[in-house]
Design goal:
Elements: E1 9-13, E2 17-19, E3 22-24, E4 29-32, E5 44-47, E6 51-54
Antiparallel strand pairs: 1-6, 2-3, 4-5
């Protein structure tokens, strides 16, 4: 039987809970200043977002994920970002 490959995760932005194959972004809301807002202007509420990178290298096949939202709102979204490195062309077919 083949050993299961361990995938590492590195949070780049945001706070994540990482437990083996399960990566959780708790989300939430924060107050931010609008671009070009005057000093002291009221802040607006915005949804938090996060970005985590994995150590997984893809050479062929499909990418999928199981996503579960607890208490979804109009701000709830999940995107899978796949990057192509032209310098590593031999890794992508």
């Amino acid at each position: 039987m083949a050993e299961k490959k361990v995938v590492g995760w590195v949070p780049v932005m945001g706070v994540f809970n990482i437990d083996g194959d399960e990566v959780t972004f708790p989300g939430g809301r924060t107050l931010v200043s609008l671009p070009n807002a005057a000093i002291g202007a009221d802040k607006v509420e915005q949804a938090l977002f996060g970005l985590a990178l994995s150590t997984e290298t893809l050479g062929d096949g499909d990418v999928s994920a199981e996503v579960e939202f607890e208490g979804a709102t109009d701000d709830s979204i999940c995107e899978l970002a796949v990057s192509y490195d032209a310098d590593a062309r031999h890794l992508v077919r």
